[in-house]
């Protein structure tokens, strides 16, 4: 690859013999053509470099393709098989990315709120990331990515016991994902405890909802309005705490022709109130020591 | 081939004994070989045409500055990101890659094992030093791969805290490490000039202090980064195409209404939903078609202008100045190196004749002679050489194209002649048959008359 121009421009003896005056063919690129290239006259080093280039290109193209083909059952069987020889190389060079920036749809931000118990018993709350304390912007962004990461790997508590009988593999995967989330969360709590002089720390995840264009035009609210911050509760998928408090829907009785119904259309489900971040008792995931880890 | 098939006489009229499929195959074989040769040649031209390193040298300056900035920012809160008490502590970082929670991968880093803060600081100081060398182009041949290695070690350690900037800055460094990116705008270039003949005499020095002549390595690095950018945009676009907001035109609204990203309040644009919609759709289509439209010379400036607009907006309004700038820098890989070379030549030509420095003996020192008289001439000659080479290559390309066309015509004429011969033979046979038939017809009346 490090061959210089002069070396490259020198055509091999065989090529010179066969194509004494063969110049390069037309090209729409910026390249400057040099030395002839026939299938018979390609030097060995070019073949080697070509193979390396092809290998690298496969390692560049296949990971985002695998990312696109991934579904609940894993990546597509074809891509999953083809990518295998390139996986390790791609992982080491950080090529195993999906490049899904703001995709498929830009979503709300996920933040972390930390409650730090002061010696006098009062609770000091801090929101991460925080532009006022994390400067320059790149440092703020690193903190932002950490809080996003915690929500990205979030897995609700579980799995339900029945799942181990129905689908043990899926249950194990669930357990593993939950374990990862709990360990990362604990690592963040430990860090916050270290930087806060060993004070008791608890964290919870917050979602900062985005107004739709129509909502914003109808009633413009400040983007940092406290009402747009929602606590993301850490609770099992099937839980009493999220069970509806009233009838979810009223199904109209079947009507016969000419008979009017009193029930009317389907009524909307009962709204569940979203707790506000200022309520420290909701959604807090308190610090546990090393023995209390999952 | 299609035209041939349509003009060919019907099977019933073919001369007996002709073997059409084998003739067809014979006609196809050289065309297949020509096609294979064409592709091989295209591949050869695309990857192995020597290229000036100027664009890469500029990109090295920009990428080096960005990488150095990233490491400096990390240094401002180092122990929050690496070490045993970081947000993601050492054990956790290792377990995210060693198979404890997900399939084991090769994204390994020795930083998982360093708990001592002093060692971490020494390591970071070494990283900063190497990155600085890469930025200023001092020992670039060694500094660039080392900077890449340190960067990768940090990437595998900072799992969870990374974003697009880290990807693009790493890829740029990776491809620069393959190339003689220290040949210009660098301390290496200055050293090479200072060393003069001593550098030329030693192969090691020639490798360590490369000159700025066209090289295959520069071309391979350029092509790899260009293709990698195409892949990034293609899959970025395809990912967006899977959503709904990039189609219904509200995606840009959600991006600018995101308080955590926002660095400039653009919500006033909500009064112009058509603009928001147009921006969303344009971004989607630009990303998807970037990989095709960046190559033709006609559309390349348009694609690059949109790239600057899109990433400039991300830098200014979405708070990701570093990411936006780095993407613009990376897009600069599509700028021809001759742009920088020409600028340099123009600058040299524009400068006033340098004042000569005399030594105590009244003689001009060597270096002064070199600087005052030779450099501008050399530069002018180099610029001329590049121009002449360009013109020559164009002539060669045209010549080659004409030659290929001539070959095609010759082959076609040969085929037509063959066909003409066949038709003549066929006509001759038919006439003979007719003559024979007429002969027999002519006998009949005689026979009848006899009867």
UniProtKB/TrEMBL annotation, chain B:
Comp. bias intervals (Acidic residues): 440-451
Entry keyword annotation includes Phosphoprotein: no
Membrane topology note: Multi-pass membrane protein
Location in or out of the cell: Endomembrane system
Keywords: Coiled coil, Membrane, Transmembrane, Transmembrane helix
Region (Disordered) residue spans: 1-29, 425-451
Domain of life from the UniProt record: Bacteria
Main location per the UniProt record: membrane
Gene Ontology terms: cellular component: endomembrane system
Ranges for domain HTTM-like: 48-339
Compositional bias ranges of the Low complexity kind: 1-16
Transmembrane segments: 55-74, 119-139, 272-296, 302-335
Residue ranges that the Swiss-Prot or TrEMBL entry lists as coiled coil: 378-419
InterPro entries the record matches: HTTM-like, Sporulation_signal_mat
Name of the protein in question: HTTM-like domain-containing protein
């Amino acid at each position: 690859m490090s061959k210089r121009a002069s070396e490259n421009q020198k055509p091999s003896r065989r090529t010179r013999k066969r194509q004494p005056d063969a110049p390069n063919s037309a090209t729409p690129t910026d390249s400057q053509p040099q030395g002839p290239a026939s299938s018979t006259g390609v030097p060995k080093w070019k073949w080697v470099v070509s193979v390396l280039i092809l290998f690298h290109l496969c390692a560049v193209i296949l990971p985002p393709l695998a990312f696109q083909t991934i579904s609940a059952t894993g990546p597509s069987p074809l891509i999953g098989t083809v990518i295998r020889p390139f996986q390790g190389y791609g992982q080491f060079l950080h090529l195993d990315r999906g490049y899904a920036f703001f995709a498929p749809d830009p979503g709300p931000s996920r933040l972390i709120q930390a409650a730090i118990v002061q010696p006098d018993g009062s609770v000091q709350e801090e929101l991460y990331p925080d532009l006022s304390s994390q400067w320059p912007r790149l440092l703020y962004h690193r903190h932002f990515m950490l809080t996003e990461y915690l929500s990205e790997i979030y897995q609700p508590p579980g799995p339900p016991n029945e799942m181990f009988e129905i689908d043990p593999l899926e249950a194990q995967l669930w357990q593993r994902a939950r374990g990862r989330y709990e360990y990362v969360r604990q690592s963040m709590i430990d860090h916050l405890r270290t930087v806060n002089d060993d004070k008791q720390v608890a964290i919870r995840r917050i979602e900062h909802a985005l107004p739709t264009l129509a909502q914003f035009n109808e009633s413009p609210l400040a983007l940092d309005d406290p009402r747009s911050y929602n606590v993301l509760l850490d609770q099992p998928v099937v839980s009493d705490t999220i069970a509806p408090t009233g009838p979810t829907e009223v199904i109209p009785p079947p009507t016969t022709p000419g008979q009017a119904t009193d029930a009317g259309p389907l009524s909307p489900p009962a709204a569940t109130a979203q707790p506000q971040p200022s309520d420290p008792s909701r959604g807090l995931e308190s610090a546990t020591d090393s023995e209390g880890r999952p | 081939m299609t035209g041939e098939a349509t003009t060919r006489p019907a099977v019933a009229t073919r001369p007996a004994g002709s073997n059409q499929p084998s003739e067809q195959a014979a006609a196809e074989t050289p065309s297949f070989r020509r096609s294979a040769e064409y592709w091989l040649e295209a591949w050869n031209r695309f990857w192995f045409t020597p290229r000036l390193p100027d664009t890469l040298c500029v990109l090295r300056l920009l990428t080096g500055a960005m990488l150095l900035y990233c490491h400096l920012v990390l240094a401002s809160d180092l122990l929050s990101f690496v070490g045993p008490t970081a947000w993601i502590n050492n054990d956790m970082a290792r377990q995210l890659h060693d198979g404890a929670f997900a399939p084991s991968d090769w994204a390994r880093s020795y930083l998982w094992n360093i708990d001592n803060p002093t060692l971490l600081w020494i390591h970071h100081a070494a990283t900063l030093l190497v990155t600085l060398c890469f930025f200023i182009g001092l020992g670039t041949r060694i500094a660039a791969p080392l900077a890449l290695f340190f960067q990768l070690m940090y990437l595998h350690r900072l799992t969870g805290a990374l974003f697009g900037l880290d990807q693009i800055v790493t890829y740029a460094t990776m491809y620069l490490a393959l190339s003689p990116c220290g040949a210009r705008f660098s301390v290496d270039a200055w050293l090479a000039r200072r060393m003069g003949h001593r550098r030329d005499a030693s192969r090691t020095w020639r490798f360590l202090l490369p000159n700025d002549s066209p090289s295959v390595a520069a071309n391979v690095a350029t092509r790899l980064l260009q293709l990698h950018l195409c892949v990034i945009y293609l899959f970025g676009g395809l990912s967006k195409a899977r959503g709904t907001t990039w189609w219904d035109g509200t995606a840009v609204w959600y991006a600018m209404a995101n308080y955590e990203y926002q660095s400039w309040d653009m919500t006033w644009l909500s009064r112009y939903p058509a603009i928001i919609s147009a921006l969303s759709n344009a971004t989607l289509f630009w990303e998807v078609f970037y990989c095709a439209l960046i190559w033709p010379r006609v559309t390349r400036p348009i694609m690059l202008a949109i790239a600057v607009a899109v990433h400039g907006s991300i830098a200014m309004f979405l708070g990701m100045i570093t990411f936006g700038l780095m993407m613009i820098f990376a897009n600069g890989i599509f700028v021809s190196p001759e742009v920088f070379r020409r600028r340099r030549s123009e600058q040299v030509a524009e400068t006033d004749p340098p004042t000569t420095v005399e030594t105590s003996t009244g003689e001009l020192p060597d270096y002064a002679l070199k600087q005052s008289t030779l450099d501008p001439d050399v530069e002018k000659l180099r610029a001329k050489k590049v121009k002449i080479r360009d013109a020559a290559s164009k002539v060669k390309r045209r010549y080659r194209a004409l030659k290929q066309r001539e070959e095609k015509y010759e082959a076609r004429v040969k085929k037509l002649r063959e066909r003409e011969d066949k038709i003549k033979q066929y006509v001759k046979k038919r006439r003979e048959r007719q003559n024979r038939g007429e002969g027999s017809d002519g006998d009949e009346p005689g026979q009848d008359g006899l009867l």
